[in-house]
Amino acid sequence: xxxxxxxxxxxxxxxxxxxxxxxxxxxxxxxxxxxxxxxxxxxxxxxxxxxxxxxxxxxxxxxxxxxxxxxxxxxxxxxxxxxxxxxxxxxxxxxxxxxxxxxxxxxxxxxxxxxxxxxxxxxxxxxxxxxxxxxxxxxxxxxxxxxxxxxxxxxxxxxxxxxxxxxxxxxxxxxxxxxxxxxxxxxxxxxxxxxxxxxxxxxxxxxxxxxxxxxxxxxxxxx
Length: 223
Hints:
- This protein is mostly helical.
- The chain has 9 helices and no strands.
């Protein structure tokens, strides 16, 4: 008599991720429909500096266009962080509670950093420069986040990828971030030269130190 061993079939819940992907693409589509010309200039950011020149006023950082795409950026980067943790065996890519935690932590980190920058800028009387500088950074990082979104979809629904591919993507993202810093510094070099001491202080305290402490905390926690 043959014995039949029944093994439970584990079905991962991916509905929440599908909903978020659809919601994000819908948000981008609505933003494009309401700001068609601006969105066109934004998508050509990699090939032209027209967007940076036309929308360089600091008031644009609070516009609905910037805020909508910023939300899409946070969703995209949070997905990529969770997928990276999943590929390296630290988490499950279908864990929606973990995704909420990552999104909350990421949003808290970005907003806290922004508020601290505002306080420092006010203290040193460099508000206009910092707002323009932040707008430039947000613009380029949002662009990277949108480019990352379809990659997230592929990585989420297809698991047959080697770690080398993910490492290449991470390396490209780091290089793009460094490149955006260099472009931003180049675009505002005249303002930076006039506020060189404060800019160096800003880089050390708000651009280098937070990431160093996050890396130290993560490596120490996983050791």
